[in-house]
Specification:
homodimer; Arc Repressor Mutant, subunit A; Rossmann fold; two-stranded antiparallel ribbon; 9 strands; about 15% strand; binds nicotinamide-adenine-dinucleotide; DNA-binding
DNA sequence: AGCCGCTTGTGAAGACACGCACAAAGTTGC
DNA sequence: GCAACTTTGTGCGTGTCTTCACAAGCGGCT
C-alpha cells in the first residue's frame, strides 16, 4: 500500500502500529451487527448472509462484509455466516466477553431513565454503581442498586471495577464529575451534558448531544422548505434562469 | 455514528440537488457552535475568535472557520467574529429562527425524561405533543402538555404543526409509530428504539443508539488492554497516541 | 501614512470512508 | 467428478472530510 509519506507532523508519531486498526466507523456498525445477531440467534436462526444482515441493519452488504473482514471473520462462501461463532467473535472483538461494569453519575431525569433501563444489562453493560450529590437521592435504590454520594466515587469504582462512566449531571457539574471518574481510574466516559470535557489523552470521551440531534433535523426541515419554495418560484417565475440561486437561495438571508 | 446519512440518492432528479450543500458533519458542529455562542452572549462577550470558539467547542480552528464559511459568515480579520450577528446567522441557517414543534411518542422511562427536559424549549425545540398507547398514561400532564393517545397523532400533529417527531417506544412498536408520524406529515424523526426504521426517501431519520455508544467505549477499553499488555513486552510504548474526545455528537449512525 | 501583528477565509493535499465489481471459494445437483 | 450457482473477501476508483499553510484583510501604533 501506499507508503504513507509520514510527514514529520509535529510530535513524533507513536509509530506503534495499530497494525490492524479497525476504522472508527466500522466499530460502530459492528456493534449494530452484534445486536442483530443476538436477535437472530434468539429467533433460532443458524446462519445469515451478508445480504440479509445488511438489510436488517440498514447498511450496504459490501460494507458489512468489509467491516467483518477487519475482525478476521470467516464466513462460508456460498452460504453466509454461522450466527453463533460470528456472534462470539464479535463479542470478543468489541470487548464484550468480559462484562463491563458501568457507573452512572447524576440520577436526575435522564439518569433515572438510564439507570432503570434493563436493556443495558442484557447486552453486557450492567450499571453497577450510581452516584448523585443530592442528599434526597443518596440512599435510594434503583433496580437494586443503591445511589451513593459522589464523594464515594473513588472507593466504589475501585471496588466494583468500573471501566465505563456515564455522566448525566447538569452541564456545570460535568467537568468536576469527570475529573473524579478519571482519577478513580475510569478511562471511558459517555457524556450527556452539553459541555466539552477536558481529559488526559488516555481517556476517551463520547458525547451524546440530544439538542444537537434536534438541531440537525431542524436544519433539514428548513432546507426542505427552501427547496420547495425555490422550485415553486422557479416554475412560475421569470423563465430565464438568471442564475440559479445565489448562496443560500435568497430566501435565507 | 450518525443517522443513515441520507437517501442514497437514487435516480431522482437532483435538480435542486446539491446547491450549496453544507457537509453533514459541518451541520452537526454548527449546532455546537451556536449553543456556545449563546452561552458566550449570556456572559456578555461581544466578539470571539475562531481560536477561542474552537477551543471551547473542542474542534480544530481551521475546521471551524471552514464550517462557518459554508453559511457565508463574515468575521473581521485581525479581530474575530461578532457574537450577536454570527449567532443570528447560525440560527437562520440551522432553521432555528422559526421555532420547530416537536412531538414525542412513547412516554415511558426515557420519554418521560425527554418530555420533562426544559433544555429543549430553551433552544427552540418546544415539545408540543406527547403520545402513548398506555391508557394509564393518556391524559396525564407533563410540563403542561397532556399525553394523547397514539390514534390522535394525525389530528394533533396537524393542529400543532409538528415538524419533528421523537420515537421513544419499545423497539417492536417503533415502525408502526413511525408510519403514523410519516402519514401525519412529519418528515424528520429522531429514533431511540434500537431498530432500523423503514421510511420513504423524503423522510429523514436519525438514530440515537445508547447501547451502541457503550459498545464503542467497551471496544476501546479492550483495545487499551491489549495494547498495554503488548507494550509491556515491547519497549516503553512511549507516545501511544490516545484517541480522545470525539467532538460532537455525531451520534451513531 | 505606512508598517506590523493578528485573524480570517480558502486552495490544495492528505486521510478516510464508501460501494462497485469481480475473482476465489464453497455448496448443491446431476 | 464436474458444472452451475451462490456468497464471501477485497482491490480499486470515487467522493467526502480533515488539516495544513498561507495570502489577504483589518485594526492599531508609531
Ligand atoms: N433530560 C433530558 O431529556 C436531557 C436531554 C438532553 C440533555 N440532557 C442533559 O443531561 C444532563 C442531565 O439532565 P437531567 O434532565 O437528568 O437533569 P436533572 O437536573 O434532572 O438531573 C441532574 C442530576 O445530577 C445531580 N447532580 C448535580 N450536580 C451533581 C454533582 N456535582 N455530582 C453528582 N450529581 C450531581 C442532581 O442532583 C440531579 O439528580 C444535563 O446536562 C442535561 O443538559 C438531558
Ligand atoms: N430508558 C433508557 O435508558 C433507554 C436506553 C437505550 C435505549 N432505550 C430505548 O428507548 C426506547 C424506550 O425505552 P424506555 O425505557 O422508555 O421504555 P419504556 O417501556 O419505559 O417506555 C415505552 C413507552 O412506550 C409506550 N408504547 C408502547 N407501545 C406503544 C405504541 N405502539 N405507541 C405509543 N406508545 C407505545 C409504552 O406505553 C411506554 O410508555 C426503547 O426502544 C429502548 O430500547 C431506552
Amino acid at each position: 500500500m501506499t507508503a504513507p509519506p509520514d510527514p514529520a507532523q509535529g510530535p513524533a508519531e507513536g509509530a506503534t502500529a495499530t497494525r490492524r486498526a479497525i476504522p472508527e466507523a466500522s466499530v460502530a456498525r459492528l456493534a449494530v451487527y452484534l445486536r442483530m445477531l443476538r436477535e437472530l440467534a434468539e429467533q433460532g436462526a443458524e446462519t445469515v448472509s451478508s445480504e440479509e444482515l445488511a438489510v436488517a441493519t440498514g447498511v450496504n452488504p459490501a460494507k458489512l462484509r468489509k467491516d467483518l473482514s477487519y475482525i478476521g471473520s470467516y464466513g462460508t462462501r456460498g452460504v453466509g455466516y454461522e450466527i453463533a461463532p460470528l456472534r462470539h467473535q464479535l463479542e470478543e472483538a468489541l470487548g464484550q466477553n468480559h462484562a463491563q461494569s458501568v457507573a452512572l453519575v447524576g440520577v436526575g431525569n435522564l439518569g433515572h431513565a438510564l439507570a432503570g433501563y434493563g436493556g443495558f444489562a442484557g447486552t453486557g453493560f450492567p450499571v453497577t454503581a450510581l452516584f448523585d450529590i443530592d442528599p434526597d437521592l443518596v440512599g435510594i435504590r434503583i433496580n437494586g442498586i443503591v445511589v451513593e454520594h459522589v464523594r464515594e466515587i473513588p472507593r466504589v469504582c475501585a471496588e466494583r471495577k468500573v471501566t465505563i462512566g456515564i455522566i448525566a449531571t447538569p452541564g456545570p457539574a460535568a467537568q468536576g464529575v469527570c475529573d473524579q471518574l478519571v482519577s478513580a481510574g475510569v478511562r471511558s466516559i459517555l457524556n450527556f451534558a452539553p459541555v466539552v470535557l477536558q481529559v488526559p489523552d488516555e481517556v476517551e470521551v463520547r458525547k451524546v448531544d440530544l439538542a444537537v440531534e434536534l438541531q440537525i433535523l431542524a436544519f433539514h426541515v428548513a432546507r426542505r422548505h427552501l427547496e420547495a419554495n425555490a422550485s415553486t418560484e422557479a416554475n412560475t417565475g421569470a423563465g430565464v434562469n438568471g442564475h440559479t440561486v445565489n448562496g443560500t437561495g435568497g430566501l435565507l438571508q
